[in-house]
């Protein structure tokens, strides 16, 4: 299980590089969040944090992959986060453990197609909306999308109500609010 999830992280980074997507720690956290939500439990626990859903275990795995040179993480020269690209050993992991990549190929493509070009703040908002919706769905028999919007606005006051409403409407089909 652990090797599979590490492989999937590396594969997201590899595919982002192939598509020339700008990938930072926020985007990678949110893509793995959406991957776990879409296809299977990768074993990560996400909590709401500064930039939306966040997994401390995932952060440790990302740093471990960087240490092993499977990922290459460097600070942005202008001070705007990080840039994550495949490390020199990325292919070793993705080429030797193809089963999880094959099993999740369609979900990986949906994640990259849907979120690969989003800015960190846009994917932060989308993931926060999805997370809040999921929590309300699990805790409450009935709730409205206005309640989701209000809860997101309380968590993320930097976003306007209109921005939140637009992001809710723009969530791709597998993650659309129902």
Main attributes of the structure:
single chain, 178 residues, mainly alpha, Arc Repressor Mutant, subunit A, two-stranded antiparallel sheet, 9 helices, 9% strand
Describe the structure.
- By secondary structure, the protein is mostly helical.
- It has helices at 2-18, 25-38, 56-67, 90-96, 99-103, 105-115, 120-139, 145-155, 161-170; strands at 47-49, 52-54, 71-75, 82-86.
- Helix 7 (120-139) packs across helix 8 and helix 8 (145-155) crosses helix 9 (161-170).
- It has a single domain, classed as Arc Repressor Mutant, subunit A (Orthogonal Bundle).
- It has nine helices and four strands.
Question: What is the strand and helix layout of this fold?
Answer:
Blueprint: H1 2-18, H2 25-38, E1 47-49, E2 52-54, H3 56-67, E3 71-75, E4 82-86, H4 90-96, H5 99-103, H6 105-115, H7 120-139, H8 145-155, H9 161-170
Antiparallel strand pairs: 1-2, 3-4
Helix pairs in contact: 2-6, 2-7, 7-8, 8-9
